[in-house]
Amino acid sequence: MRTFKSLFITVSLLSGLSSTFAADKLLSKVDLAAANTLRERALNDTTAGQLVESLTTEVGARPAGSTGDKAAIQWGLREMKRLGFSNVRTMEVTVPHWVRGEAECAVLAPWPVNIPTLALGGSVGTDSEGVEADAVMVKDIAALAALPAGAVKDKIVFFSNRMDRTQDGSGYGRAVAVRVQGPSAAAALGARAIVIRSVGTSPNRFPHTGSLRYLADIARIAAFAISNPDADALERQFASGKQVRMRLRSTARELPPEKSANVIGEVPGTDRANEIVILGAHLDSWDPGVGAIDDGAGVALVMGVAKLISELDTKPRRTIRVVLFANEEFGTSGSRTYTTAAQAESVRHVLGFEADFGAGPVWRLSSRVNPNQLPVVEQIFRATAPLKLARGANTATGGADLDGLARAGMAILSPDLDGTKYFDVHHTANDTLAQIDPGALQQAVAAYAVSAWLGAQYPGDWEPVTEVKPPRR
Amino acid sequence: MRTFKSLFITVSLLSGLSSTFAADKLLSKVDLAAANTLRERALNDTTAGQLVESLTTEVGARPAGSTGDKAAIQWGLREMKRLGFSNVRTMEVTVPHWVRGEAECAVLAPWPVNIPTLALGGSVGTDSEGVEADAVMVKDIAALAALPAGAVKDKIVFFSNRMDRTQDGSGYGRAVAVRVQGPSAAAALGARAIVIRSVGTSPNRFPHTGSLRYLADIARIAAFAISNPDADALERQFASGKQVRMRLRSTARELPPEKSANVIGEVPGTDRANEIVILGAHLDSWDPGVGAIDDGAGVALVMGVAKLISELDTKPRRTIRVVLFANEEFGTSGSRTYTTAAQAESVRHVLGFEADFGAGPVWRLSSRVNPNQLPVVEQIFRATAPLKLARGANTATGGADLDGLARAGMAILSPDLDGTKYFDVHHTANDTLAQIDPGALQQAVAAYAVSAWLGAQYPGDWEPVTEVKPPRR
To answer: Cα distance from A243 to chain B (closest Cα, Å)?
Structure first.
């Protein structure tokens, strides 16, 4: 009892809040004890590891609209049923069906070389001869805009910007604009095609794909990525002062949209069953790899968490709902379909967790909750103490698939996965099971399981989040 | 003087030899001081780094018989002249001209997947439909031989043996038999094609090529390698207990032999100019990467060493000869041509250094010298003390390109390059400049430069090596 009392006092002091937080709005000893049980079980549970092994081996790559995408849906239904989830079902989603085809990138002058390349996701292809043109190197879109008029007309533009390695993924956010906006930015100035240095941190020779966004009313030009070491070598060609001439070719093409599905299963709640604690990850992947860290690991993690919670003696108060979203990578149509459907449901989504940043470990617990719920977040954080997490701010964004629900006011708890090495592998052919450390994944399952369980047991209401200020601590 | 005297005494005691090693058979103070100068200059000299950058950027891949091979010869001549070497010349070499073409490896059942693959060097191709067959997994050639009669008839054989990571490269020696002998071993039992787990240590998705050796009178079947993570996934397909069915396709083919060349340059000796200290590396590379660590680094290293020696105030007693060998990878015809020609020369090859094990650092100094020269090897070892090397045995093998000269009795000094990570990159598409640490390369240049210089200055004779016993220490 001592621990609980001192915790209550500490929380009250730390949060700077007072009597509005009575003991009955904090987590019970029983629920905290169950959290300890969950955490210890999770650290020794191989379910998530087995799931990602199964998904990557038996299904493999599963880009939106592909046969792998359809196989993944069947896999998700089968595995959710095997794990004993309730209300296992699909929700139909329409997805784009872009096909990568083959891509070639050759430097013709000054020093001929063939460079491994990938088309950016959604890129148009070229005609069969490809695009051959002199090339211009710029760092980023600002540098492109600063060029003299006509500088890239009929040229190939090479964006050489280098991504920073960060734990929280912020380096990606800063670097990705070139990929998303670069094609239309260059096309607007008359360029015929673009090549970008991969938006990734790997020193290995893996080009990094990912989606672009064409602007309306601007010519759609083909867009490619090359790996960091190849971008380094291409920079050296430019540094020679000689004219760089390149040829790019791609058979990428858009096929008619396909049907896919979100896959959903639940651990039913009890007295607050109509309140949903959603655990989201995405079932689709890019095609060059087999989608182990992106997002097989997240799929396995949320399924492993729900399975562990379902095995507790106490059933959760709120309903734990696992949603494996369709098509995160190519426009989040799975998320948008789900968010629309959620508005029509009689249940309410009160708290969300997304796992879409690799296979762990978790290094920090962040949140985006109504400030009135910060004391319980603090209590949840303390329940993760043996996992040695940092305490993050109350400014978490959740993730792409929960974005719609979060914008509608749903609270977010974010056990932050360590992104330091994530962008060495993400969106490359090297996204395989070999990149997953089973121990790190188990630690991540533990962090999510403790947080999700306690979030489901919180005796108060998860109030809507309207405005979030930086946390007091 | 104190240092020198105590060194002499130590050497005499350690070598267990006595008065036959008078002071006049040991290195002079002047030469040792020059070695210190060389070492310090080498640790700050960027010549080798610039050379490997230039070779990999301006020439890139240079497999035997290719246009890159021819460009590399011109590059070697140009750079040797630029560095001020004497007697810069080529020696014509006939080389095979195998063309890799494209390769495909697909698992059709139980779980379809396309696996990145490379043909083994020298492999025949398949017909345009490829080879489709049920597959049998074995660890290695011994396990293949232990199968019941007919077990692999008309099948595809998957060799799953995993290479050990070692500092001295011994793991490669133990694992490589599957690649060299596997194709004929499987063909002799009626197999239609083979796939091997790469003879490499990388957890990344890079298949590893390298040469095979077909036996006469046995059908030549196509042979492929897949990366370690893909081999892991393929093992899981076999572990399912279901029949694995695969399709393999390759357009590899042999073209008529081509002319290539060894590229040779010298730092002329003085009073012992007719004795050659040879520094060898190979100019050819495999084609998937750009041959940075194999063997651009070695090429750069031996050229950087000779350049530093040429810049000393004192000219070497013996002639330092740099030889960039043609075609190490595909049968060492450059080495064989050179060895034959050396027998007809009026000069004698007395001491050899080969650099063909990556970009450093050097971790050990080994040798293969007549035991009468062990005291001077010890003295050379002590001159490398600030580089913190281990003292290796007198059982070094040199390397593939110096093998013929070593068998004819030439002494070998082997500053052993650290191979711990070498086989993560070797023979893969990932063999790029990004894998080279400039500081490690400079340390390696220092180790070779000190050893080569002192080897050239040794006042005694480098006696022929006939029988080498394990060293006394």
So the answer is: 14
Nearest-10 Cα torsion for A427, A429, A434, A435: -30
Q: Which residue is listed with tokens 């960091």?
A: A228
Task: Tell me the pLDDT tens digit for each residue of B127-175.
Answer: 999 999 999 999 999 999 999 999 999 999 999 999 999 999 999 999 9
Chain B residue with CA closest to A55: the answer is B111
Prediction pTM value: 0.92
Contacts of A61 in chain B (CB under 8 A): 113
Is the predicted pLDDT of residue B113 greater than 90, yes or no? yes
Angle, helices B47-54 vs B67-82, to 10°: value is: 150
Cβ A111–B435 below 8 Å, yes or no?
Answer: no
Residue A10: pLDDT band (50, 70, 90) is: very low
**DSSP code for B121:** B
* Phi and psi, residue A259, nearest 5°: -90, 135
| Interhelix angle B297-310/B67-82, nearest 10 degrees | 20
Tell me what the mean pLDDT of segment B387-396 comes to. Answer: 96
Percent of chain B with pLDDT over 90: 93
What residues of A are in the B interface, CB distance below 8 Å? 53, 56-61, 110-113, 116, 203-206, 228-230, 232-233, 236-237, 289-290, 429-430, 432-435
Distance between CA atoms of residues B406 and B408, nearest Å: 5
Q: Is A177 a residue whose pLDDT tops 60?
A: yes
Q: Which residues pair with B364 in a beta bridge?
A: B390, B416
Residues of chain B with Cβ-Cβ distance to A59 below 8 Å are 111
Q: How far apart are CA B367 and CA B395, in angstroms?
A: 6
Q: Smallest Cβ distance to B432: which of A61, A205, A434?
A: A205
Q: Contact B372/B461 with Cβ under 8 angstroms?
A: no
User: Do A56 and B205 make contact, defined as CB atoms within 8 angstroms?
Assistant: no
CA distance, residue A284 to nearest chain B CA (Å): 16
